[in-house]
Every structure is written in C-alpha cells, then in structure tokens.
Design brief:
The chain is an all-alpha fold and 263 residues long. It has one domain. 77% of the residues lie in helices and 0% in strands. The longest helix has 50 residues. The radius of gyration is 27 Å and the shape is rod-shaped. The two termini are 31 Å apart. 30% of the residues are buried.
C-alpha cells in the first residue's frame, strides 16, 4: 500500500544494497579466488533461483487473483444496489420513496466517504459515523416494515429483499477485504529468499567485473519490482494500485439519471 515514490525508493535501495554487497565481497574475496568454486556455486544458484521464482510466481498469482475477486465483489455490490433501486418501484409509495432515498444516500456516501477512507485507513471503516452503514440499516428497516397486501406486492418485496441481502453480503466482504493483508511470515520468506538469491549470485567469481555488476543489477531490479508489485496488489483498496469505485460511480449515475441509462 505504498505510493509510487515509495515504491521507487524501495527498488533503488534494493539495487544499491545488492551492488554494495558485491563491492564488499570483491574487496575481501577477489573474483579470481572465487572462480574456482563456480562449478559448485552454479548449480546451487540454479536450485535457489528456481525455488524463489516459483514462490514469487505463486504469490503474484495469488495477490492478483485476490485483487480481481475484490474488484468483482465491489462491482456486484453496485449492481445489486441498482437492481434494488429499480425493484423498489413496486413497493407502496411511502416505502418506495424511503427505500430509493436511502439508496441514493448510500451510493453517495460510498463514493465520497467510504472509498477514500478505505484507501487512507481501512481500520477507519469500523466507524459508522463516516460510513454508509446507517443507510444500509435504514433500507433493512424499510423492507422489514413494508406491507404486502397482494401477490404483486409480495413478489416485489421478495425481490427487494433478495437484492438487499445480496448487496449487504457483498458490502461485508468488501469491508473485510479492505482490512486483510498477506501474513508477515510470507513477507519474511519472500524478502529472505530475495536476499539469499542475490547474495548467492554475488558469490560467482567472474573476471569480467563490469558484466557481473550488470547481472546483479538486473537480478536485484527484477526481484525488487516483483516484491513491490506484490505489496501494492496485496491490499486491493490501498496503495498506488487499487480497486476504483467505477462501479459505484456508474450506479450513482444510473440512479440519479435513469433515463437513457442501460446499466
């Protein structure tokens, strides 16, 4: 959940530390003396690199899959809200006006208050004074006290309850996803794996020192970029890469301007 400047700083720092490691190693253990061990170091680096590449690839896939799941869940919540707004047209006039007013306030609160709060401080979404939770409770109160005097009203009320229940479920999942993160033990494994892989690469004894420096920079750049990408995508609602409220913005436009809108 870092910004772009912090991500660049981490990448530069990682590369600088890798180069420093190679310089210190060349100072205390000359490349010509290490070259006699290249046959042993080579296959060890191949094993370490393969294991670390598998870990990095799996973590990238896992966090990207979670990111897409969070995005889909948020869009489903917005879709349910639109369906709820439209289904409430079949309710008695008083309950219809109340339900649609709550729906308009809800989407407004999510876009202008809740989403920015999730990006800044996900723990702050527990404070309902600044969130959309009161509007959800208001919609449930209206639905629970809506009379159904005939089959048509019963069918409409049933549809409203289905959409409201689905929307509330997606909302709960969204708030939970905004506060979850990859366990620290996994971060320790990824960082230590990167350190070990780069350190092992530095052990190679090469008489072409500039070429060795280029290879270490390339490896450290790749590793740091992968770690930064995992860190950004891991928190789907925070950081420079996050789920946008485009679904709710589209729902807001549909609710406020229903004519000519096919959302």
């Amino acid at each position: 959940m870092l910004d772009i400047g912090q991500n660049i700083y981490i990448v530069v720092l990682w590369i600088t530390l890798s180069i420093t490691c190679l310089v210190m190693l060349n100072t205390f253990w000359e490349p010509s003396r290490r070259s006699v061990h290249n046959d042993v170091i080579g296959w060890q680096i191949a094993i370490l690199g393969t294991i670390y590449a598998v870990m990095i690839g799996f973590m990238l896939y896992a966090v990207w899959n979670n990111f897409q799941t969070a995005e889909t869940n948020a869009n489903n919540e917005a879709n349910d809200l639109v369906n709820l707004y439209r289904a409430s047209d079949g309710l008695p006039q008083v309950q219809r006006d109340q339900m649609q007013a709550f729906a308009r306030n809800y989407v407004q609160s999510v876009v202008t208050q809740e989403w920015p709060q999730m990006n800044r401080d996900p723990a702050g979404t527990n404070n309902n004074r600044y969130m959309a939770q009161p509007y959800v409770m208001g919609m449930w109160h209206v639905a629970a006290h809506t009379p159904a005097n005939n089959l048509a009203e019963q069918a409409n009320l049933r549809q409203v309850m289905v959409e409201l229940s689905s929307m509330t479920e997606h909302r709960r999942v969204r708030l939970l996803e905004s506060r979850t993160a990859m366990p620290g033990i996994l971060w320790a494994v990824l960082v230590m794996g990167g350190v070990i892989t780069i350190a092992a690469s530095c052990l190679i004894g090469s008489e072409n020192v500039p070429l060795h420096f280029v290879l270490i920079v390339a490896i450290s750049l790749l590793v740091s970029l992968a770690l930064v990408a995992i860190g950004d995508i891991d928190r789907p609602f925070q950081g420079s890469v996050h789920v946008n409220p485009s679904g709710f913005q589209r729902a807001q436009d549909t609710i406020l301007h229903p004519e000519g809108n096919s959302f």
